[in-house]
Every structure is written in structure tokens, then in C-alpha cells.
Amino acid sequence: MELVSIGKFVATHGIKGHLVLVHALGAATALPGLRALMVSSANTGSLPYFLIEGKSRTANESLVLLEEIDSKEKATRLINKTVAIPKADFDRLVSRHSPLGIIGFTVVSNGEKIGEIEDVVEQPHQTIAYLDVQGKEVLIPLHKETVQHIDRAKKEIAVVLPEGLLDIYLQ
Fold it and tell me: How many helical (H) and strand (E) elements, i.e. helices and strands, does the chain have?
């Protein structure tokens, strides 16, 4: 099962084990239809936690209650842990305006397919797309000067790359 990282737990809320999930889904969500969250850390790898309740707080925060996490003390152990969900649920929940919504799109430059976006990271002035090109990780800046067009139907992003950028990664 393919998983997509959506954010992390940043705080507890109340005394019953609720957790604040900061996510990059791009819209307020109570995580409807989601049965479990995959929570990962360097020590344990990924473990499923079944979702009892999800509530929307803001466009990038949700309040969640997980099975077997019934106290503030138990919830505290999950703070700063990364949260992922199955790709099918991600595709259903992500806003088309979220940078995460372009994961899986193909980057095209000068009519040539460069690679598929595997991950994105938001920076203050741009989004960085992570691609696998010829077995090497390539970082592509996505901002108003580099993005020419986004074709959501074809799942393609046409870009103008800075001269020599690909050469740096592929040498």
C-alpha cells in the first residue's frame, strides 16, 4: 500500500488524548472516511493507529482521537511523529490548491518529460518538488518564474528550468 505523508502531530489537546495534527491537505478537514493513520518515527517505523474521531480546526489543523490513546500522557508520546495516509485516501482528501496535490504529476521541460514528482516541500517563496531522474534525486523549484502551466487532466507541470540545473544533479 502506497502511503503519502500529510503532516505531523504537534501538540496534545485536553486530557482525553486528543492530538493536534498539522497537515498539508490544503483545506479544513475532519478526515472523513479515514479509518487509520500511519504514524512513524525513527525508532518504531510506521505503525497504524485507528481513528476514533477527527475534527477540523483550521485549514491546516485537525484534532484527532486515536484508539488506545486515551490520556494526555499517551498522546504526548506521539508529538512530532510523522503522519501518513493511504494514497487513495490522500487523493480523496487533498485540496487541488495544496502543494501536496501535485505529487504524482510529471514535470515537463521543453516538451521533454523529466520525471514524476515524488514529494514536495513548501518554502517561504517557492515549493520544491522532489523527482527521481535516472535513479538520482533532483530538486526542482516551483514558483511563478519556473511554472509555465499545470495540466490537471494530464497530471503534468510544464516548467522552465534554470540553465544547467539538471546537469548539476545528473553528473
Answer: 3, 12
Domain with CATH 2.40.30.60 in the chain: 3-93
CA-based angle 129:135:139, to the nearest 5?
20
Q: What is the distance between the alpha carbons of residues 24 and 67, in angstroms, rounded to a whole number?
A: 23
What's the grid cell of residue 126?
A: 517557492
pLDDT value for 123: 82
Helix (H) or strand (E) holding 165: helix 165-170
Q: Which helix (H) or strand (E) holds 111?
A: none
**Residue 34 to residues 64, 86, 89, 150, 155: CA-CA distances in angstroms?**
11, 9, 7, 29, 25
CA–CA separation, 130 vs 116, rounded Å? Answer: 8
The pTM for the full model equals 0.73
Architecture of the domain defined by 3-93 = Beta Barrel (2.40)
Fold of 103-170: SH3 type barrels. (2.30.30)
Hey, which of 43-47, 62-66, 160-164 has the most confident mean pLDDT? Answer: 62-66
Is the separation of the CB atoms in 109 and 159 below 8 Å?
Answer: yes
- Looking at residue 162, the DSSP 8-state letter turns out to be P
